[in-house]
């Protein structure tokens, strides 16, 4: 077969040279030379401008070439051929329930009613010296209900009825109290219809409302529950964090739905209006806002701490009110376009999707410049599942989308977000490839020519990790974000890979975090064996990590995503069609 091809090429070349020779008499020789000269000048000019263009637009051209060379993240056609089986994996689901009991019973034995638990010292502590506010108990209730742990639930309910009090003269974080305690009370009400939870929820919310009494309506970071006054965070010069003020809306709006009192809804919505008006040219949001003028302060831009759940709740507010508030759709779509352009990146060798941070720096002339840092918090791992959920919601071309979605059912933005979501979940799983099988709190990604010395074989590494050192970044504190994304990805695709990954994480937690006498502790360095533990069991182990694992192995009639939206602490709220309409656009 090679022969004719070769000959053809030879012939073609031969024919061309022949015609040039025969067809052009001597008189034209100089003309041809001049033409050639012109051609060279033009070609040279084109080349110079091309080089100049590439030089001027290096990042853009580089990204284009990369995009063309890279393997695609997701193949819609191949994924659609899979047979779906959403039935429960009962042995694995029961193992997760056993883990929950191992955690809860130890807490109940050693520290019932205290806000936080220390399983190694068998003790509890409260957030303030004014006494506890049910941080752990309330956060755990809906998980017990889902798991069918009736006896444990009855004891927890009794504690809420008899011992829980918010008459505490101390400063509590507005956001944390809302997502854990208010959120926990509301989902407990939804699952039981027991009015005690509404009473408690309303009491707590009313004590917190004064935090919103600022010139703009952006709530202060802290609130004194007994004195009913907002308290500014002195560490941050009175600024408020973007994610904290924009992650109260699902809770307050649902409370309005349950009580018919509009004030909670209005306060929640005012915050969103201020944020919408604060919009900056790039479409990005930085992590601090000024509660006095409602403007962004010059501060880092990231999907990690203080940024994360702002994006999560833009989408979830649109979902919560059954797609009746298009303003959140618009805000979410704008945010995702900006995030895609400025924050989502792909690593050099392994082509891992990750998100970078952008931090402001002041140069010698006092001007602000922005620096990119390839740093990703474990917190960002919620974003893989969130992008996938957004793709089948705001990125859908019609009213329903298949499991998994077909390419034709998604808009271009939907396909983009879906692929990036799938890719980010994969990346998060890559960061679990450590000595313990647990992921560190923070990873950095290699950049071309960054001269970073690391022992990592991967495109990511733990900053400051060397033998004998335990940097802060190396810890695993029982965080839920990756299993949260695995649960959403599983429900939206039916791909058993997500269950396998979740099981791997569960086994690593059992192996390294479990305390024999009861409870689970945090690991100080995910790359060091045997592990060194820190004596703390975060409340989100029982409210989020174990709940999402339980849901991952349950059948898909348990809390279907078409009927529920999860707050950022994994408390499920029902989707509803509101009687109120959003007051701004
Ligand atoms: C936490 O607060 C509760 C309620 O005031 C109190 O009963 C308990 O003793 C406190 N726990 C600790 C460890 O101080
Ligand atoms: C959401 O809206 C759809 C279409 O309007 C409607 O059929 C459905 O009942 C609504 N769901 C809820 C929970 O209100």
From TrEMBL:
GO CC annotations on file: endoplasmic reticulum; membrane
A Pfam family that the UniProt record links to this protein: Glyco_hydro_47
Origin superkingdom: Eukaryota
Requisite cofactors: Ca(2+)
Keywords: Calcium, Disulfide bond, Glycosidase, Hydrolase, Membrane, Metal-binding, Transmembrane, Transmembrane helix
Record field: transmembrane: 37-55
Pathway: Protein modification; protein glycosylation
GO biological processes: carbohydrate metabolic process; ERAD pathway
Top EC class for this record: hydrolase
Known EC number: 3.2.1.-
Substrates-to-products reaction catalysed: N(4)-(alpha-D-Man-(1->2)-alpha-D-Man-(1->2)-alpha-D-Man-(1->3)-[alpha-D-Man-(1->3)-[alpha-D-Man-(1->2)-alpha-D-Man-(1->6)]-alpha-D-Man-(1->6)]-beta-D-Man-(1->4)-beta-D-GlcNAc-(1->4)-beta-D-GlcNAc)-L-asparaginyl-[protein] (N-glucan mannose isomer 8A1,2,3B1,3) + 3 H2O = N(4)-(alpha-D-Man-(1->3)-[alpha-D-Man-(1->3)-[alpha-D-Man-(1->6)]-alpha-D-Man-(1->6)]-beta-D-Man-(1->4)-beta-D-GlcNAc-(1->4)-beta-D-GlcNAc)-L-asparaginyl-[protein] (N-glucan mannose isomer 5A1,2) + 3 beta-D-mannose; N(4)-(alpha-D-Man-(1->2)-alpha-D-Man-(1->2)-alpha-D-Man-(1->3)-[alpha-D-Man-(1->2)-alpha-D-Man-(1->3)-[alpha-D-Man-(1->2)-alpha-D-Man-(1->6)]-alpha-D-Man-(1->6)]-beta-D-Man-(1->4)-beta-D-GlcNAc-(1->4)-beta-D-GlcNAc)-L-asparaginyl-[protein] (N-glucan mannose isomer 9A1,2,3B1,2,3) + 4 H2O = N(4)-(alpha-D-Man-(1->3)-[alpha-D-Man-(1->3)-[alpha-D-Man-(1->6)]-alpha-D-Man-(1->6)]-beta-D-Man-(1->4)-beta-D-GlcNAc-(1->4)-beta-D-GlcNAc)-L-asparaginyl-[protein] (N-glucan mannose isomer 5A1,2) + 4 beta-D-mannose
UniProt GO MF annotations: calcium ion binding; mannosyl-oligosaccharide 1,2-alpha-mannosidase activity
PANTHER family hit by this protein: ENDOPLASMIC RETICULUM MANNOSYL-OLIGOSACCHARIDE 1,2-ALPHA-MANNOSIDASE, MANNOSYL-OLIGOSACCHARIDE ALPHA-1,2-MANNOSIDASE-RELATED
Protein name: alpha-1,2-Mannosidase
Native source species: Daedalea quercina L-15889
Lineage of the organism: Eukaryota, Fungi, Dikarya, Basidiomycota, Agaricomycotina
């Amino acid at each position: 077969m090679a022969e004719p091809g070769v000959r053809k090429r030879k012939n073609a070349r031969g024919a061309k040279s022949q015609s040039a020779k025969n067809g052009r008499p001597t008189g034209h020789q100089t003309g041809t030379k001049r033409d050639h000269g012109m051609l060279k000048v033009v070609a040279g000019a084109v080349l110079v401008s091309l080089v100049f263009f590439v030089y001027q637009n290096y990042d853009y051209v580089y990204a284009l070439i990369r995009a063309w060379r890279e393997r695609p993240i997701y193949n819609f056609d191949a994924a659609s051929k899979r047979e779906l089986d959403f039935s429960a994996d009962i042995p694995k689901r029961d193992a997760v329930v056993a883990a929950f009991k191992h955690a809860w019973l130890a807490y109940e034995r050693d520290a019932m009613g205290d806000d936080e638990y220390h399983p190694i010292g068998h003790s509890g502590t409260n957030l303030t010296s004014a006494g506890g506010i049910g941080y752990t108990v309330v956060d755990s209730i809906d998980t017990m209900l889902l798991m069918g742990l009736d006896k444990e639930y009855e004891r927890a309910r009794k504690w809420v009825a008899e011992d829980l009090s918010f008459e505490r003269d101390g400063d509590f974080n507005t956001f944390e109290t809302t997502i854990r305690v208010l959120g926990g009370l509301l989902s407990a009400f939804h699952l039981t219809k027991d009015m005690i939870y509404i009473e408690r929820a309303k009491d707590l919310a009313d004590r917190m409302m004064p935090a919103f009494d600022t010139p703009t309506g952006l709530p202060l970071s802290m609130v004194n529950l007994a004195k009913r006054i907002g308290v500014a965070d002195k560490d941050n010069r009175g600024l408020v964090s973007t994610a904290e003020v924009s992650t109260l809306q699902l809770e307050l709006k649902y409370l309005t739905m349950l009580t018919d009192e509009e004030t909670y809804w209005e306060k929640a919505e005012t915050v969103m209006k201020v944020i919408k008006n604060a919009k900056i040219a790039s479409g990005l949001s930085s992590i601090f806002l000024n509660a006095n003028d409602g403007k962004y302060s010059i501060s880092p831009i990231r999907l990690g701490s203080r940024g994360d759940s702002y994006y999560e709740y833009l989408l979830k507010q649109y979902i919560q009110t059954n797609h009746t508030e298009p303003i959140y759709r618009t805000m979410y779509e704008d945010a995702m376009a900006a995030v895609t352009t400025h924050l989502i990146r792909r690593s050099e060798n392994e082509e891992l999707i990750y998100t970078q941070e952008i931090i402001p720096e002041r140069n010698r002339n006092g001007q602000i410049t922005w620096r990119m840092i390839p740093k990703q918090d474990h917190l960002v791992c919620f974003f893989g599942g969130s992008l996938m959920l957004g793709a089948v919601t705001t990125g859908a071309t019609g009213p329903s989308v298949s499991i998994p979605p077909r390419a034709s059912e998604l808009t271009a933005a939907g396909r983009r977000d879906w692929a990036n979501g799938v890719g980010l979940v994969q990346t998060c799983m890559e960061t679990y490839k450590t000595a313990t099988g647990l992921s560190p709190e923070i990873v950095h990604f290699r950049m071309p020519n960054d001269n970073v010395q690391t022992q990592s074989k991967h495109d990511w590494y733990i900053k400051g990790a060397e033998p004998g050192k335990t940097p802060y970044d190396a810890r695993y504190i029982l965080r839920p974000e990756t299993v949260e994304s695995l649960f959403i990805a599983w429900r939206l695709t039916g791909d058993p890979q997500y269950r396998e990954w979740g099981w791997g994480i569960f086994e690593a937690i059992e192996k390294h975090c479990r305390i024999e006498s009861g409870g689970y502790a945090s690991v100080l360095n995910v790359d060091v064996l045997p592990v060194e533990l820190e004596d703390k069991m975060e409340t989100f182990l029982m409210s989020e990590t174990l709940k999402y694992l339980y849901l991952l192995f349950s059948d898909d009639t348990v809390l279907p995503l078409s009927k529920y939206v999860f707050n950022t602490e994994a408390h499920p709220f029902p989707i509803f069609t509101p009687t109120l309409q959003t007051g701004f656009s």
